[in-house]
């Protein structure tokens, strides 16, 4: 990537995301974090709901929504605050770095573009050698990585 500002942004984000990497294998408890923490602290629905200014049934509904994945971040922050905790949230990349993710996507796209062009040339009996195709894919990958066009993510 030639754009130093973009490169700096990616490097800074990679450092931030790296701190979440060790958390990727932590499984969410079957009944959700809220229920698990509340019961581990021996805090009743009534006690926590009272701290939040809501009914015990509303809190029970929130615990259910956490399990189904329909709870909001704001609600989780409110619950965490009532439990004298802090909600921490982030993303964990499936790749080692964001640049690796961009490279993989750019190479897939470059391969598609080069092979599409090569297929046309085959029909015209002007096909390229395997070595030339690999070189073209590498060049197109670099070009896409340098430009980071919006169509990369289509």
Description:
The structure is a single chain. The mean pLDDT is 90. The two termini are 20 Å apart. It contains seven helices and no strands. It has two domains: 25-82, 434 Repressor (Amino-terminal Domain) (Orthogonal Bundle), CATH 1.10.260; 98-153, no CATH class. It has helices at residues 4-21, 32-40, 45-52, 56-68, 73-82, 98-123, 130-147. Helix 2 packs across helix 4 (56-68) and helix 3 packs across helix 4. By secondary structure, it is mostly helical.
Report the CATH C-level class of the largest domain.
Answer: Mainly Alpha
Q: What structural class do you assign from the helix and strand content?
A: mainly alpha
Helix fraction, binned, reads 55-70%
CATH architecture tag of the largest domain: Orthogonal Bundle
Q: How would you characterize the largest beta sheet?
A: none
Q: Beta fraction of the residues? A: under 5%
- Report, as a whole number of angstroms, the end-to-end distance: 20 Å
Q: Which ranges are low-confidence, i.e. pLDDT below 50, for 5 or more consecutive residues?
A: none
Tell the overall outline. elongated
The strand count comes to 0
Nearest-integer average pLDDT: 90
Radius of gyration: 25 Å
Question: How many distinct helices?
Answer: 7
In total, the number of domains comes to 2
Element-level helix/strand string? HHHHHHH
CATH fold description of the largest domain: 434 Repressor (Amino-terminal Domain)
Which terms would index this structure?
7 helices; mainly alpha; 434 Repressor (Amino-terminal Domain); 154 residues
